[in-house]
Amino acid sequence: MKKHLYRSMIELTNGKASSALLKRFARSSVSRHFVTNYAKTYQIELQDIVKPLESYPSLHDFFTRKLAQQARPIADAEIVSPVDGRIEIAGSIGKDSRFIVKGISYSLAELLGSEPSAASYSGGQYAILYLSPADYHRIHSPADGKVLRQYMLGDKSYPVNKLGLTYGKSPISGNRRLITELETAAGRVVVVKVGAMYVNSIELTELGTDWEKGAEVGYFSFGSTVALFFERGNVEFASEIADGSRIKVGEPLAYMV
Questions:
Q1: pTM score
Q2: pLDDT tens by residue, 114-167
Q3: Checking phi first, is residue 255 left (phi over 0); if not, alpha (psi -120 to 50) or beta?
Q4: Do residues 230 and 187 lie in contact, with contact meaning Cβ atoms separated by under 8 Å?
Q5: Which residues pair with 125 in a beta bridge?
Q6: Which residues, other chains included, contact 37 with Cβ-Cβ below 8 Å and sequence gap of 6+?
Q7: What are the residue numbers of the active site?
Q8: Which of 27, 68, 183, 226 is 20 to 30 Å apart from 12, CA to CA?
Q9: Do 63 and 132 contact (CB within 8 A), yes or no?
Q10: Closest to 133 measured CA to CA, from 224, 36, 34
């Protein structure tokens, strides 16, 4: 019962009114009384966090908690995990592949917002990482790279940080998602950060165009998934990568071919 309540609160719902209500409660001072119980219910590793439980002013502040710097060492791999989470699925991108992200089925073009964007990654590799309410929700760069473009999709489409693409007047359906395309030593990589449907639940903390592997670049305020897409023939997944396995920030995800 408790887990169901907390999951609903953090992942929100598909209703605008209920999502707004849950969001307001999670950010309220009243919710601070739930922090200790939340940590206990999800058996969160408290030794990694930088502040004592009682110092968080709301459940939302605990959900977006930072970790001690040494808690997530960065591996010597070209591509590392950008988040703590479960690998839902990883594999090759086929011509007709569809991707289930937070219960919604997308083609790659739908997920990225245009056919030309998707064409660059046809035949490449992908990995989808799900973050549960128990997970650390800060996002880190998967590689050293330069931001080529960055844009938000969801109820409305608009560029972020004066970068991005134009999609016309038609709204793009689905969950809010912030898409970042990086130029890396392992070729181009797309990092799709998927948040809630009716609220902007993705916050950027890195506003520059140079990303450093393992450095924090943003965080999720509410329910979240990260999908990564790689160009054809550029990378192969680490031997530990398997559907359903757990991974943490900085652990090896893929190596350059």
A1: 0.88
A2: 888 899 999 999 999 999 888 999 999 999 999 999 998 876 434 444 343 343
A3: beta
A4: yes
A5: 92, 230
A6: 2
A7: 84, 140, 224
A8: 68
A9: no
A10: 224
